[in-house]
Every structure is written in structure tokens, then in C-alpha cells.
Design brief:
mainly alpha, 3 helices, about 85% helix, rod-shaped
Length: about 90
């Protein structure tokens, strides 16, 4: 059971770290702040690197929210005391 908890926490940390990094990469390199960034974004937003960054952000957001939903549900079920089948 403890190994499963460690794996779940590690998965959440990994998903969030990739999500955070890809968003920072996208906002820094693809669409920087300011008027120059607006003009630069016209050229860089469609680049493969920027598309990969947005795809990674989207996919890791889905993974992270699923981990939170499943983990939160499991926590609530454990608090209520419903029996789980033994592994």
C-alpha cells in the first residue's frame, strides 16, 4: 500500500513539473510579454517547439487533474470506511 502511495505522489509531482515547465517554456519563448512579444508570437506560435509545449501542457493537465480526482475519491471512500477488495 505504501509503495502505491509513493508512486501516486511521484506521478503527480512529475505531471505537475512537466506541466509547469512547458507553460513557462511556452510563455517565455513563444509568446513573450509586450508588443514585441505579440509580434514575435505571430511567427513562433505555430512552430513545432511551441506546439509540443502546448500539447505537453494540455496532456499533463489532464493527467494531473485525473490523479487529483482519483486520489481525492479514494481518500473520501477511505474516510467513509467502505471496504475495498484486497489486492
Amino acid at each position: 500500500m505504501e509503495v502505491a502511495i509513493v508512486k501516486a505522489v511521484a506521478s503527480g509531482v512529475l505531471a505537475y513539473s512537466i506541466h509547469y515547465g512547458s507553460i513557462k517554456l511556452y510563455s517565455t519563448l513563444c509568446v513573450p510579454d509586450g508588443m514585441w512579444g505579440y509580434l514575435q508570437g505571430l511567427l513562433t506560435t505555430g512552430s513545432p517547439m511551441c506546439q509540443v509545449a502546448l500539447t505537453a501542457a494540455s496532456q499533463t493537465q489532464t493527467s494531473y487533474s485525473s490523479l487529483l480526482l482519483v486520489g481525492g475519491s479514494r481518500f473520501l471512500i477511505d474516510m467513509v470506511g467502505l471496504p475495498f477488495p484486497k489486492e
